From TrEMBL:
One of its GO terms (cellular component) is nucleus. It comes from the Eukaryota. PANTHER family: EXONUCLEASE V. Residues 1-12, 31-44 have a biased composition (Polar residues). Residues 1-49 are annotated as: Disordered. GO terms for biological process: interstrand cross-link repair. It comes from Phaseolus vulgaris. Pfam families: Exo5 (PF09810). InterPro entries: EXOV, PDDEXK-like_dom_sf. GO terms for molecular function: single-stranded DNA 5'-3' DNA exonuclease activity. Belongs to the EXO5 family. Signal peptide: none annotated. This is Exonuclease V.
Length: 401
């Protein structure tokens, strides 16, 4: 039986961007009712976090792993990357942004994680110290920001249906906090991208209501922490914009289908969930604290849909904030105008790779400075040591979101 965190007003938290069952699966969080609604401290939202026993090892050096990439190339009968690595999990916004950063790196990372899980569970390797420290600092900062508005408690779950219910409840409570207090953080989002025919998942760093009372459209904010106190490169800005716009795309999809054609059946089928599965006692109590009764998963899904009905589309102006890791000072706050045509084309391009419609491409020639800090450089066919002057890397200097 897994232990998870839950409480009065809670947010569900998955690893890395936001995932419900993604490659970075980390503790999940659930968010009971808005603190204001429950006459609790308006600043307090209790988060539920799922804890799993996982065999962990530090990151192996690629050279120590031999030719795993060549051995693990998907066979023709091994279906697509989407089916192989995201079956019953959904494509995450992080998957989209990492694919845009470098398709070959994304492909290598999937194969490498598979290799580690299958063959490297008890091995201990060093390497990547600076990148690991930068990523850890970024994660810790996001925890700090979340704990400013949420409180984490433990909750027991016993099934996949409980896990899904907890994540949906985190969204419900996060929305309650947003509508009552004007701000929520680490908001999990699960949406059916109908145009693409896939489920996508994510975790929005921050959602805030506009100060102008005439504007009711919530503002989505992404906070990126940087190892160096420098402004990001254009490639890093572009990657952050894609991430933000994906969140808005998912949000607006939820709102658009909340009143009709809400994909309940598709949700149960894709994630292989039983809508009549009885929820654990802890989850039933958490739902009651959130203001509704839910004995089975279907009850939670219906309330999830009703919560979406209360929401307007998100604001067309998005905020991309860059912080210096050392002192949390704001290096830059970029206002990003939403471009639905552009982000849909990026998602479609990403899916071409994930659905096996084409091979992974390499980074453009003017962005090959990324290769200098890629851990898969020794396996990449395009790499040549050109003594790149740039020292920026996605993991260390760009947003650790």
């Amino acid at each position: 039986m897994d232990k998870q965190n839950c409480s009065p007003t809670t947010n569900h938290k998955l690893s890395d961007e936001e995932n419900f069952h993604t490659e970075d699966s980390a503790p999940s969080k659930h968010t009971p009712p808005s603190a204001s609604k429950l006459n609790r401290n308006a600043k307090s939202i209790d988060s539920v976090k799922a804890k799993r026993n996982m065999s962990m090892c530090s990151e192996p050096d690629i050279e120590d792993c031999g030719d795993f990439l060549r051995k693990k190339k998907p066979k023709a009968d091994n279906t697509t990357l989407l089916h192989r690595f995201r079956s019953k999990r959904g494509l995450s916004v992080t998957d989209v942004s990492k694919t845009e950063w470098c398709e070959r790196q994304m492909e290598f990372s999937l194969l490498f994680e598979e290799w580690k899980n299958n063959e490297c569970k008890q091995m201990d390797f060093g390497g990547g110290r600076r990148n690991n420290e930068a990523m850890k600092a970024g994660r810790n900062r996001h925890v700090e920001l979340e704990e400013e508005v949420h409180t984490t408690v433990e909750l027991k779950v016993k099934s996949r249906e409980d896990e899904m219910a907890m994540k949906l409840l985190n969204f419900i409570n996060g929305v309650n906090q947003l509508l009552f207090d004007g701000l929520t953080r680490e908001l999990p989002i699960l949406s059916f991208a109908s145009a693409e025919g896939i489920w996508m998942v994510g975790k929005i760093d921050e959602v805030q209501m506009p100060r102008a009372k005439r504007d009711r459209n919530p503002i989505l904010v992404e906070t990126k922490t940087r190892f160096q106190d420098t402004v990001p490169s254009e490639a890093q800005r572009r990657n952050g914009r894609i991430q933000l716009m994906c969140y808005k795309y998912l949000w607006d999809n939820l709102v658009a289908h909340a009143h009709h054609d809400f994909p309940c059946k598709e949700l149960y089928d894709y994630f292989e969930l039983n809508p009549r599965a009885t929820q654990s006692k802890d989850l039933q109590a958490a739902c009651y604290e959130s203001g509704f009764t839910a004995l089975i998963l279907g009850d939670v899904v219906r309330h999830y849909q009703n919560t979406c009905k209360r929401l307007p589309p998100s604001n067309d102006m998005l905020v991309l904030r860059y912080e210096f890791q050392r002192d949390h000072s704001v290096l830059e706050e970029e206002k990003v105008a939403y471009d639905e045509g552009w982000v849909k084309s990026e998602i479609e391009s990403c899916l071409e790779l994930w659905l096996g419609q084409r091979e992974a491409s390499y980074v453009a020639e003017d962005e090959q400075w990324k290769c200098g800090h890629c851990k898969f450089i020794s396996e990449c066919e395009i790499y040549t040591d050109n003594n790149s002057e740039s020292t920026e890397s996605f993991a260390s200097d760009s947003s650790i979101g």
